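Entry:
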Amino acid sequence: MKNIFTLLFAILWIAGYSQQDYKITHNTGQIKIYDVDEVNITAYDGNEIIISSPSSKSGHKDERAAGLKRFNSAGLDDNTGMGVFVEKDGEDVTVQQITSNCDCKISVKLPRNMGVYYTHGTYNGDDITIDGVGGEIEISATYNNLKLKNVTGPMAVKSVYGSIDAEFSSLSQTGSISLNSVYDHVDVSFPSASTYNVNIRTPYGDIFSDVDIKVEEKSGMKRISSTRVNGKVNGGGVDVTLKSNYDSVYLRKN
């Protein structure tokens, strides 16, 4: 009897926890995501953007809102059923969170060569993960922790209170790399054969690395500092800037 109740509970839990999908056939330009609290982006070899979000049917439901959609002051409505508004905008696709009340969490499957633009400015910001994206990445966040994996660049990534962890599968030479956290750490790894010019700054933290950096010299003299490093790796190449104002910077080879 106990096993029957356990099985019945599992079935009811699964039934009450569904995942919605919203699909757009699109594989050029950028996906631009505004103020969505938590996002998991995975690149794949396809021609559709697939947005999904787990939703609980057993949670609180506003019966008065039956048949209605959320709207915000910009006139945008929840056209996905996930608390976000999605539309094509020329070469790009925009995703906008409708309300700060929704505790929004979405997953995005993205064609591999598309770029990603993400911005978030409130304390509701949670983890942002990006895996396998081959296009340009631009992120401006306040509280989000940023986790990037199997990326190539170019990119400009900043979080004020969140950490930045980035693992590169290769290093594009087409544009610069900038990773900047004001109050948390920056931890990045590049393939050991990568060629780049590196500029590291951490006024109130430490610098740790297992990379062979040829430190820049001026007039035959090396600058000695525990808070900044300028140099070349494997002869130099694309510009890489790593900065944490109040925590440490970790540069690794993978």
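The chain is about 5% helix and 50% strand.
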